[in-house]
UniProtKB/TrEMBL annotation, chain A:
Pfam families: Radical_SAM. This is His-Xaa-Ser system radical SAM maturase HxsB. The keyword Iron applies. The gene is hxsB. InterPro entries: Aldolase_TIM, rSAM, rSAM_paired_HxsB, rSAM_sf, Sulphatase_maturase_rSAM. It comes from Ollibium composti.
Automatic annotation (TrEMBL), chain B:
Gene3D superfamilies: Aldolase class I. CDD domains: Radical_SAM. Its cofactor is [4Fe-4S] cluster. It comes from Ollibium composti. PANTHER family: PQQA PEPTIDE CYCLASE, RADICAL SAM DOMAIN PROTEIN. Keywords: Iron, Iron-sulfur, Metal-binding, S-adenosyl-L-methionine. This is His-Xaa-Ser system radical SAM maturase HxsC.
Amino acid sequence: MKVWPLKFREMSDGSMLFADDAGGFFKAGDDFLDRYATDGLSADDSLFLKEGSHGFERERDLPWTSFAYRWARRQSRPRKMNYVILVPTLRCNLACGYCQVSRAPEKARGFDWSDETLTGVLSFLGDLEGPDIKVEFQGGEPMLRVDLLEAVRDYCREKFSQSQFVVCTNLQKLDARAWAFLDADDTFISTSLDGDRLTHERQRTHDGDVTDAFFRNLEAVVARYPEGKISALPTVDVANPPDLDALLDNYERYGVRSVYLRPINHQGFARKFHQGDNVVARWNRLHSGFIDLLIARNHRTGRFMEEYYFSQCLKRVLRFDADNHVDIRNPNFFASDYVVVDHDGRFYPTDEARMLSRIGRIDLSIGDVATGIDRAKVDVLNSGAFNHFDPDCIHCAYQPFCGTDVVDDISRYGRVDVPRPDTWFCGRHLALFDKVFEILYRNDAPTRASLAAWLGVAAWDDGMAPVHS
Amino acid sequence: MIPLRVKVEVNAEEPFVVRLRSFEAEEREREPEQLNHFEVSLERADPDGADYAGEGGPIRVLGIDPSELDGDVLLVNPRRGTADRLIRSTSPHNTFLVTERCDQVCVMCSQPPKKHHVDLFTYFETAALLAPEGATIGISGGEPTLFKERLFTFLKRVLVARPDLFFHILTNGQHFEEDDRSTMTGLDQSRIVWGVPLYSHDPSVHDQVVGKQGAQERLLDNLAFLCRVGAAVELRTVLMQPNAPGLPELARFITAMLPFIRTWAVMQTENIGYGRMNWKTLFYDSSEGFDVVGRAIDLVRSRGIDARLYNFPLCTVPEAYRHLAPATISDWKRTYREECEGCSLKAECGGFFEWHPRDHGYGRLGAVQ
C-alpha cells in the first residue's frame, strides 16, 4: 500500500494528531510517528491506514478515488455570483469607537448612492444568471435609505425566482416605512448586540436614551417576528470584554442561539483602537473559555447555543463541503460568488477590503458598477488567496481545514508574505483548530451533547473521532 | 391496494403503448388537436367499463373508475386481455421492470429472479416519452444492467427527448466496465440517481447476502467507477439480522471510502418473495434495537454525508431520527394498521408494507400522540 503524506501536530494531551491532504485525520501516539517517519509501519498500522482511506493499492481503486474525491471537494470553489453586499449609504446615526468602516455622520452629504449608482447596481444585478440571489444591506446604517432598499428588493423579486434580503441595522430608528420593509417574509434582520447593556452602551450608543431606544426596538422586533428572523453578533474588545455569561443570557432572551463572537476588526476607525499587547493570545484564551462556557451552559440548561465561527471550523474539519462561510475557504478566490458594492458604486472583493480602502492606505476596489468588475485586479488578489503552496502551511496539519486572508494581511502588515505563524490569522486559527480537536477527542457527556447539537446529529460518541492505538 | 394491472378488451394482435385521456366537456372541441398518436380519449363509461377512442384505440377498460386512469400510460397485451399501468400519472412511484433476470440471489429479494426475459425497451421508450412533466421514472428488475446496451440507449434517447424527466435506477453494480465510461459520461448524470446496494463492509457478509462470491469486490470497484463518471449514487443497505451488528462499521467504511454518495439509505425489510421465506432469520426489529442504526447514521451525517431511513414506520423510530425517515413505501404497497388510528404522524408516515406480517413484526409500535 502507498500511504498518502501525513502531517502531524502535538495535541494538548500530548498525543499526536495526523492529517492527510484530503482532511482525513486521526489521533495516535509518538511511537506511531516514529514508525511512520522511519518507514517501519507495522501490519496494524497499515490496516488502520487502509481502513481510514489514508493509502491505496493502485490508481483508480476505491481508496484512491475516495481520497481524490475528498481532496477535490475541499478545493472546489463557487463559480456563480449569487450574494451581493450593498452599501446604499455610508452615513450612520451611531458613532461606535471601533467602527470598522469609518462611517460618515448622519447629516453628511455625498455618501449615498446617486441615481446613476442605483441604476448601475440594478443593471449589475440584472446581468447575474440566477435563479437565486441573496442581498445583504450594509452601511453606514442602511435603514436611513429605505427607499433604496425598496428599489433593490422590488427589482430582485421580479428578476430572480428566489431572493432573500438581510438588513444589517443598528435598530436605532424604525419608522412606519422601515417596519413595513422589515415585515416581509423574505427579509431578515442582522444587528449588533455587544453583550450586556453596559458594554453595549460603552461601545456603541454612549447615551442612556439611545441605549433605551435600541433595546426597545430589539424587544419589538423579537416580539413581532418568528425566531430565525433576527440574527445578532457582538463585537468584543479583548481588553474589556463583556460578562460572557450575561451575554449568552441576553442572546437567548432575544431568541438568538448562534453567537458569532467577533474580535474588533483591524480596519477603519478600529485601527486606532488600542487593545494592548499580545492581543491574539488573549483573544484565543477568551474564545477557548467561551467554548467551555457554552458547553457547560448547554449541559445545564438543555438548550443548545453555539459560537458560530467555532461551529464553522468544526464542520471544516469533519466535512469536505463546509465552504459556505466566506471568511474560511480554501481557495478563497475573490468576486466569484459574492461582491461588495460601496456607497459610490465601487466594487470591493470583501467588506474588509472596502474598509481598508476607505482609510486611503491602499485601493482594493475592483471596478465599479458603471465599468464592471476589474478581473485583472481580482487575479492579482487571487494569486495569494489560497494556502496550498505557502511554505509554512504545507507543513501544518490544519492546512486542509484552514484558509487564508490576504486582506487582513495587507491591513495589518502591509504585505501578504509575512511568515504565517507571525500573522493574526494563523495565530487565531491554530488556536481555533487546537480547540476543535481538543473537543472532538473529549469524552465527557456535556461535550458530546454540545458537539452533536453543533453538528446537527442526534448523538456523538467516542468512536466517531478516529484513534489509532 | 392500487391495481397495477387492469383488464381490457381491444381489437388488436400485438402489444402497444397508449395513454388514456378524459377530457372535460368544455375541452371536447379542442380534443382532436390535443391527442397525439399514442393517445385515446374517454368516449363513454358505464358500471362495467369505459370506452376510449383515438388513433391508438379503440379500447375498453374494465373494472376501474376511469377518473383514476386519466393520463395513465398503459402497455396493452391484447392476447391476455390485460394492460400494465406503466405510468400512473398521479403517482410519484412509477417503475419499469426491465427484466426479471439477475446474477445475484439476495436472501431478502422481494422480486425473486426468473430465467425468462422479454425485451420491452421499445415500449418503455414510448411510455417514458408520454410521462407527465417533470416525472421521475424508476428502473428496476431483476438486474437492469444485464442488458446495459439496451438500457444506455433507452436512457440516452429519453434524456435528450425529454429534458424534464429524471430516472432512478436500481442496479447491483456488477456490470459496469471501464469501456462504459464514455457512454456514462455522455448521459446527463444530473438527472439520474443510481440506487446501489451494499450490505456490509465485510466482503463475506455482503457476498453471503447477495449469494455471489466476489460480488463486494466487484461492487467496490464499480462504485469507484460511478464516482469517476460523476454518477449520483444512492447507497442502499437493507437492515437484517446478518448485517445489523456491523452497521456502525459499515458507516465508518462509508465515511472513509464512499464520501461521494448522494445518500445512504438504511432500509427495512419487505416481507415478500425470499424476504418472506427467510423472514425469521432476516427481520431485524429496529424498534427494539435502534442503537446500531442511530450510531451509524449519526457518524455518516457528522461527515456531511446524507443518510436516510427508508421503509421505517415513524412510531418505530426514536423522535430525534424521525426527520430522516421519509414516507418511502410506494403508494401501491402501502397500508396502515389498526394501531395507526389516531396517530398524529400518520400524514407524514409511509406506514407498512401491505404484506407486513401481523405477528412477526416490530416489538414496539403504535399511534404517536
